[in-house]
Specification:
Helix content is 8%, strand content 37%. It has helices at 2-10, 15-20, and strands at residues 53-60, 63-64, 67-68, 74-76, 81-89, 95-102, 105-113, 118-126, 133-140, 146-155. The strands form 3 sheets. It has a 5-stranded mixed beta sheet with strand order 4-10-9-6-7, with no helix packed on it. A 3-stranded antiparallel beta sheet has the order 1-5-8, with no helix packed on it. It has a two-stranded antiparallel sheet with strand order 2-3. Strand 6 (95-102) and strand 7 (105-113) form a beta hairpin. The N and C termini lie far apart (137 Å).
């Protein structure tokens, strides 16, 4: 009887009957290929499979020729702007977001549309000198998945050393100059 139902189910003749019955646990852990619709049959609500990688991601003090000029993990608050550079691979057609966070609070979200197999993007943040502490930028895909996370520390700039008047040396004096004499 099970064979007849299976054969008929293959023809779609008993699909309503099978749908009403509770699902029995499968005895054979074989792949469930028939349960997954083909790509052309997928429902419009189904999200496309995300692919691709973050090849590089770093904080930098600047960008030149679409490349970071350095890589920083600590900045002093006498620097008021920082960039986050990301190189993406095999993500054409997808949207990726740089999510900037400070003390657990989202400070900015910058979305990018990826238009090639290798795509370099960057975002920047103007920093207030009082926003000290750890900063985090997450690279987030369309589905909300985190692809990469980097952090940097924003710290108070070291105070310039000042000399107290008691330890200052008097300015160097030049020897007294003699009036010039002219020979006639």
């Amino acid at each position: 009887m099970k064979r007849i139902l299976f054969i008929l189910a293959g023809f779609g003749l008993v699909a309503p009957v099978l749908a009403e019955q509770p699902a029995a646990p499968a005895a054979d852990p074989a792949p469930q290929e028939a349960a997954v619709p083909a790509a052309s049959e997928a429902s419009p609500e189904a999200a496309p499979a995300q692919s691709g990688t973050v090849a590089r991601a770093t904080f930098t003090k600047g960008i030149e020729d679409r490349e970071p000029i350095d890589s920083v993990s600590t900045l002093s608050n006498d620097t008021s702007k920082v960039y986050y550079f990301t190189e993406l691979r095999d993500m054409a057609g997808q949207t990726v977001t740089h999510r900037w966070e400070h003390d657990g609070k989202v400070m900015a979200e910058v979305p990018f549309t990826v238009n090639g197999a290798r795509w370099r993007v960057f975002s920047s943040k103007n920093l207030d000198e009082s926003w000290l502490g750890e900063w985090k930028v997450s690279v987030v895909d369309e589905a909300g998945g985190t692809l990469a996370v980097n952090t940097f520390t924003y710290e108070k700039a070291a105070a310039a050393p000042t000399e107290s008047p008691a330890t200052m040396e008097p300015p160097a004096t030049e020897p007294e100059s003699q009036p010039a004499t002219m020979n006639q």
